[in-house]
Amino acid sequence: MKVPKKNRYFHNKNDEKQDNADKSADVEVYNVKITPRILKKQKYKEVKNIGKVLRKEKKGKFPGKAPIDPKTLERYSRGEGLEGKGLTHPLHALKWQKKERKFNYAQEQAARAEILLPEDQGLIEVEEGGKTTAVSQKIIAENVDIAAATKIFELNLDFGPYRAKYSRNGRHLLLGSKKGHLAAFDWVTKKLHCEINVMESIHDISWLHVETMIAAAQKEWLYIYDNTGTELHCVKKMDKILRMEFLPYHFLLAAVNEYGFMSWLDISIGEIVGHYNNRMGRTSVMTQNPYNATICLGNSKGVVSLWSPNVRQPLAKILCHKTPLTAIAVDNRGMYMATSGVDRSMKIWDIRNLDGPLQHYKLRSAPVDLEFSQKDMLAVGLGEVVEIYNNCCSQTAEKPYLRHRMAKSISNFKFCPYEDVLGIGTSTGFSSIIVPGSGEPNFDALESNPFQTKKQRKEAEVKALLEKIPAELITLNPFDVMEVDVPSMQEQMEARKKLLHLKPKNIDITPRHKNKGKTTIARKKIIKSSTRKEFIDQAIEAKKLLDMPEKQTAPKKSFGVLDRFVPKTKSKK
Amino acid sequence: MSNVKIKVISRNPEDYLRSTKRDIHKIPRNYDPSLHPLEAPREYVRALNAVKLERVFAKPFIGNLDGHRDGVSTMAKHPSKLAVLASGAFDGEIRIWDLAIRKCSRNFVAHEGWVRAICYAPNGETFTSVGDDKTIKTWKSQVQSPEDEEPLNTLLSMSVVSGITYHRVKPIFATCGEHCQLWENTRNEPVKVFKWGVDSLHHVAFNQIENNLLASCASDRSIILYDCRESGPLRKVVMELRSNALSWNPMEAFIFTVANEDYNLYTFDVRKLNQPVNIHMDHTSAVIDVDYSPTGREFVAGSYDKTVRIFESLKGHSRDVYHTKRMQRLTCVKWSLDNKYILTGSDEMNIRMWKARASEKLGVLKPRERTALHYADALKEKFGNHPQIKRIARHRHVPKHILNAQKELRTIREKTKRKESNRRIHSKPGSVPHVPERKKHVVKEDE
């Protein structure tokens, strides 16, 4: 055995051990040079492990908290956490860990709070091999309690095709007919708020932020009524409106008119915050995306476009069908969009991705209207039949969940929020049907409360007004406002310049003499190219500055005579 | 279709409505994120509202204590009673105040000429004052009989005395003047005299944690550290300009902050005096006095520019600025021991009471109020870096003379920077090195 005679400076203590190990067994030995950092890490690991062991021992005696279903947990997730990879300073890493822990705790608590929810979702259970499609409203009425059975009703009204809309808490219903009949009532108690005939055609109706205010798009202008039918405003800036949508958190009434003008009316201050022509042609296919408050517009060329009041161009455009569109619907979480064309097809899209339809359905006829419920059921209106599909977005639904046939044509329908009810506006009135499992069973009273008292409503109105989101924040990604603002190259350059106290070059923009011989186009090109070149030069300079090492590197470790074997770093000239 | 089971949502109103009119409303909650859309912009708006409300409610001035017939020269906090404050004036009068009712409870002429400093004994039963008449007088805090009005003890010093501070535990106190002297109450002569070739010292303070350590500010621009167990001074650091006052951090024994004549405050670490740990800028004139909050996280500084500024001890710029039209040049500032109030004495004979946090509500908070405030604070922190929110949170209205002075200072600072960078550009690389700001203000450190 070779034994070193003396301990020389190049003999590491570990070397000896390694030699031994090499000979003794085929075990691979890694020679790790121990640095303070590794020691620290090791220590930390040890401490951590001790904690784990202790916890495990504890687990045997006391099982601890009940485990949470990962699916439930996923529902309350605010996105994946960061691992804190780029954090170099241990203090920042620690702070980040603490923050992460808080987020996780909040998520867990929210998921655990689900046990407190009082109501369960509705459902239909049939015997094995049976179809839920065969369950008619009559059977449903026979099988539910009396109070729920009263939710199936029909109103026969004389004034032609009706449009219906529920208020945000699902308690009130608004009907507006083509022939001018406008009615608002509490549909649960059937108490009428008001009923008027405006003696003009009504194209669309909408509740405003509270159930005391109604907007009606009449033949010429937009009118706003209160719940007794008194005309409050006539907004002449918005004329010939075809469709309206109310954005409750922004207090905006979005509308599109016959000439393709989009307008957003801030109803809290009565100001129009966005008004422009969409250049998409006349269209009455419109819906809102509740996830980000953009407006989805479908036109006669089969293109769906997303709009915000701040940008005059569509935020996104997608060719959905090669034929004119008949209806669009967006689900509550802003995940799926359903579109239908006159080609009798219906497609489901991922609205955040927009490439390729997720599902493609062929229907018997072209749908009149589409509507998603709170629990992602999709109602499709086919002439005189309403079909409701369950779970049709992520997978292909073979059969409709429910089918309801009527002897009158459908004009529109809406799912009632927080109820298992679908309200259908038809050519001869209104009919309400039960769709078990379509509504959210547990409401959040601070968001919208079906059992709201007058005082609560007033208070909620004030709170909502205080939290009115400005129209500028309507973007495709609503979480934009939370993201880190990364400065552009130019901004970085400017900041750097300021830091270095460099004087900016004086650029004389006016030409000294006219270049008479050259055409304007050529000159423009020259100017363009020269400015571009200038910018590129500046960018290169700035990059150089940015790449410049901040400090001189610390003097290298000296190995005495052996310095010549240290690899030299190449220096760029 | 016989075997069909159907369940629909059917709410019993009794479960959701209050049973009697005296009952509270039922508020069922559901935290499902799909029921609460647009979370980010809503939170942003809430944060914006919270920060605006904070500025709306920022009314820090509580009241003033008037009664002195000359400018207030010094103040002293009672170590155990929050409502007691002693203040001395330029005419030699000392007043004891009851802060709860904002009334003067006792006043007497203690010295001929200024009252230079007052300090309570750690037990709070007596307090000692020093004046221009070279006397050190000890007084009783509580007056039961007429003879309690007279000083308990009068010590005559050979030279002018300008500052006094008590040891936290031992029955000794230190004064400063020509030299730093240690006294015991029972003796007529100083126990110890520390000299380091200085003509005069104007402020002295015992460390309250490492209680044998004391520091003083000298008129030759230096700060001197002493240990009361040793025979000579320990260390000295010389600054570019004179330091006016000194305050020890009550939570971190090795940290102290000095108020300097060059408009800045410097936080030093005792273990590393060759450069300050932090420089606190923002005042536009000499800083006269400084006092730490009992948490050690913040301190208050009063300046000759007629403003009071509150600094966070780890940050370089002030968190808040207080001023009034009538307040003249500050002479002394104190942070109350419950961390809620700030007391300032100024040239024009008034002592003013301020809230330490300008928008804080005084009095008892209801639980809902408290949670709402916590929520608002969390939001403000979360969105604190948004330009709009930052702008509102940072904005302070200052009098015109301060604004102009700030502008002037900024141009001066920019000028020097520009000049330096120009010089750097046009000279041999490396010959004009970058000197960090923290290294610029200390001249030397002696041992």
Automatic annotation (TrEMBL), chain A:
Residues 12-23 have a biased composition (Basic and acidic residues). One of its GO terms (biological process) is maturation of SSU-rRNA from tricistronic rRNA transcript (SSU-rRNA, 5.8S rRNA, LSU-rRNA). Residues 400-478 form the BING4 C-terminal domain. Pfam families: BING4CT. InterPro entries: BING4_C_dom, WD40/YVTN_repeat-like_dom_sf, WD40_repeat_CS, WD40_repeat_dom_sf, WD40_rpt, WDR46/Utp7. It comes from the Eukaryota. Its main location: nucleus. It is found in: Nucleus, Nucleolus. This is BING4 C-terminal domain-containing protein. It comes from Parnassius mnemosyne.
Automatic annotation (TrEMBL), chain B:
InterPro entries: Sof1, WD40/YVTN_repeat-like_dom_sf, WD40_repeat_CS, WD40_repeat_dom_sf, WD40_rpt, WD_repeat_DCAF13/WDSOF1. GO terms for biological process: maturation of SSU-rRNA from tricistronic rRNA transcript (SSU-rRNA, 5.8S rRNA, LSU-rRNA). Coiled coil: none annotated. GO terms for cellular component: small-subunit processome. Residues 437-447 have a biased composition (Basic residues). Transmembrane segments: none annotated. Its main location: nucleus. The keyword Transit peptide does not apply. Pfam families: Sof1, WD40. WD repeats lie at residues 65-107, 108-140, 280-312, 323-364. Keywords: Nucleus, Repeat, Ribonucleoprotein, WD repeat. It is found in: Nucleus, Nucleolus. Residues 356-442 form the Sof1-like protein domain. Residues 415-447 are annotated as: Disordered. Belongs to the WD repeat DCAF13/WDSOF1 family. This is DDB1- and CUL4-associated factor 13. It comes from Parnassius mnemosyne (clouded apollo).
